[in-house]
Amino acid sequence: MIDLNGKRALVTGASRGIGAAIALALAESGADIAFTYQHAAEKADEVAQAIHGVGRRAVAIQADSADPDAITRAVSEAVSALGGLDILVNSAAIGHSGLIADLDVAEYQKLMDVNVRAPVLFAKAAIPHLSAGGRIISIGSGLGERVPFPGVTAYAMSKAALTSFTRGLSRELGPQGITVNLVQPGSVDTDANPADGPAADFQRSLTSLGRFAKPSEIANAVVFLSSPAASVITGATLTADAGAIA
Length: 246
Description:
Helix 3 packs parallel to helix 4. It contains 7 helices and 7 strands; from the N terminus they run βαβαβαβαβαβααβ. Helix 4 links the parallel strand 4 (about 85-90) and strand 5 (about 135-140). Strands 3-2-1-4-5-6-7 form a 7-stranded parallel β-sheet, sandwiched between helices. The longest helix is centred in the middle third of the chain and has 22 residues, at about 105-125. The protein starts with 7 loop residues before the first strand and ends in a 6-residue tail after the last strand. It is α/β, with parallel strands linked by helices.
C-alpha cells in the first residue's frame, strides 16, 4: 500500500463521482483531505464522513469553480484547516454536448471557466504553499486526445488544454521539486455517465477491455502520482481509458 501519511491534499469537485473516489483513496493511503463542492452539501458530508471513517481529517469547502474569488478562498481555507498543502488534485469539471453550430456562448464560457481557468487558478493559489515533493494532478479526458464522435468538440477542447497546462507548469515547478501530471480517464461509471446509460454500449465498443472504469480505478492512478514512487514523473499524461485511444 502506498503511504501518504502526513500529506495534506486539496481535491476539487469531490462531492461525488471521480473526485469523491480520489479524496477517499488519498485518505485511505494516509493523507488528510480538504475538498470542494458546489451544491451537493449532503453528498459532501457523506464523503467527509467516509474520510473520517478511515481515520483522516476531512474539510468540505463550498466553492464555485467558476468564481476566481471562491477559488482563492478555498485554497486559503484548505491550507488553514490542514496546516499546509502537499497535493492539489484538479478534479472539478462540467460536461457539455452539442454541435459548434448550435453553441451557446454563455455555456461555452462557463465550460472554459470551470474546466480550464479553474485548474490554472487553483494551481496559482496553491503554488506558494507547495514545497519539494509537492504534487499537482489534473483530471482530463481521453476526449482531449481523440474525438471519435461529433457533439463533444467544446468539451474536448477544454480537456485538451490541460495537456499544455501540465507540460508547461511542470517546467515552471520542476526546479522546486514539484511534479505536475495529468490523468486522462475514458468512460467511467458515475452518475453523470452510468455504465447502463443509453450510450454505454457504444462507449464500451470503443475500448479494448470492453468496459467502463470504476471511479476507484481512476483514483488509484492519482494516488500513485501523488506518491514518492512517482517522484521522477512530471509533465506526463497517464491515460486510464480501458484502451479507447489505443
